[in-house]
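Subject: for your reference before the review

Hello V.,

The reviewers asked for a structural picture of the protein, and I figured it would be easier to keep everything in one thread rather than splitting it across files. Below is the amino acid sequence we used in the manuscript, unchanged from the supplementary table.
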Amino acid sequence: FSGKRRIAGETEEEVYKKLGLAYIPPEMREDRGEIALAKSNKLPRLVSVKDIRGDLHCHSDWTDGTASIADMAAAAKACGYEYMALTDHSRRQTMSHGLDPARVSRQIRGLDKLNAKFKGFTILKGIEVDILKDGSLDLPDSTLAKLDVVVASVHSFFDLPREAQTDRVVRAMQNRHVSIIGHPTGRLIGEREPYEIDMDRVLSAARDLGCYLEINAQPERLDLNDIHAHAAKSKGVRLAVSTDSHAVSSFDYIRFGIDQARRAWLTADDVINTRPLADLRKLLKR
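And here is what came back from the structure prediction:
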């Protein structure tokens, strides 16, 4: 208002325009420098769900998923995706019927047959491999070398001291077959606190080694959080926004991961699974 005369306020956009600012998306309104960017018309174009071309963390009934590979692929394709990475658990996850090298090879042969039936859609061969206590991986390099995508995750020894936990994750990233670090702080909201880890050191290692980190879109994870994801962007580390789907309905969770990415100021360029398949394959090569 100017006196009693209303000069703006019918829409948010109108208010920002009256103040001489570019419209600031709600997710950025945290007083982290966005007002200065709005004044100079330099706000980033935040990533959106429509930018996502595929999901890089999905499970099937080969391990602890509830649907077949074919059904998961059909659901991903129905989302308009170009690709889906099948990343069932590795053998250490005995409760989830994790895959040993022989089952990985058998699954790969099945994926080749399934991919031959699809047009305009590809199932990427992958695994979610456990990061062991010492930072080594749950499957040999000879098996990991056969895959398109390797998501390496911590699923045990959450109580290691900060330095040891950080050493563990950094060692895993040093394996050239590792593409992405899954749910990098291990938190389960309302159930388990993040494990102690030096995220600045992890991000520096990811940048130097050409590894990516995940924003896990599962509502109980949302891991990385927005603060860490913004720090990743600041260091030049790209991320994957993935659903960790264990059911066909879980692909819808992508919107929660994108909300987290937008709070971190991420653009489509900061997220690797906004790329067409050919470009993604180049990014995944280390």
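For the response letter, the relevant points are probably these. The radius of gyration is 20 Å. The longest strand covers residues 122-130.

Happy to draft the paragraph if you're swamped.

O.
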